[in-house]
UniProtKB/TrEMBL annotation:
Gene3D superfamilies assigned: 3.40.1280.10
Protein name per its UniProtKB record: Ribosomal RNA large subunit methyltransferase H
Family, similarity comment: Belongs to the RNA methyltransferase RlmH family.
Taxon lineage: Bacteria, Bacillati, Bacillota, Bacilli, Bacillales
Enzyme class: transferase
Family matches, as NCBIfam families: PRK00103.1-3 (NF000985), tRNA_RlmH_YbeA (TIGR00246)
Length: 159
């Protein structure tokens, strides 16, 4: 299986990079995982609704340019469906079973995802009703993908 994580914004914190690198190393036994990091749009602290929309659209265009046309796209969005780790594992397993070996997870910038990205997404996934920094979300996502493969293989994992 080929998993791509398309994410907006640079990862600056060393401790997050170390955690992500650790899970990426563990994931090599299960899947090929690539992280595509896209620059975020620079924006002033206060934005009008029009400016927010323009920024999301520019970031959205960058995101869409990196998605493989054959990929099953899962957008991380607060309004998405919440799943248990077992349900995420089941989703990934079914995608592989039915010939969808390319999966793209999308993490937007601080303003969220554009309407065009949400339209391209095959599903929207929410990890919580809470808002997380997108850098931290990257670590949480790679851990959950790793956990999903452990669950699919019947291997032990922390509950």
């Amino acid at each position: 299986m080929n998993i791509t994580i398309v994410t907006v914004g640079k990862l600056k914190e060393k401790y997050l990079k170390q955690g992500i690198d650790e899970y990426l190393k563990r994931l090599t036994a299960y899947a090929k995982v690539d992280i595509i990091e896209l620059p975020d749009e620079k924006a002033p602290e206060t934005l009008s609704d029009v400016e927010m929309l323009q920024i999301k659209e520019k970031e959205g265009e960058r995101i869409l340019s990196k998605i493989n046309p054959d990929a099953h796209v899962i957008a991380l969005a607060i309004e998405g469906k919440m799943k248990t780790s077992e349900e995420l594992a089941d989703t990934i397993e079914k995608l592989g079973t039915y010939g969808k070996s390319k999966v793209a997870f999308i993490i937007g910038g601080s303003l969220g995802l554009s309407a065009a990205v949400m339209k391209r997404a095959d599903e929207a996934l929410s990890f919580s009703k809470m808002t997380f920094p997108h850098q931290l979300m990257r670590l949480i996502l790679v851990e959950q993908v790793y956990r999903a493969f452990r669950i699919m293989r019947g291997e032990p994992y922390h509950k």
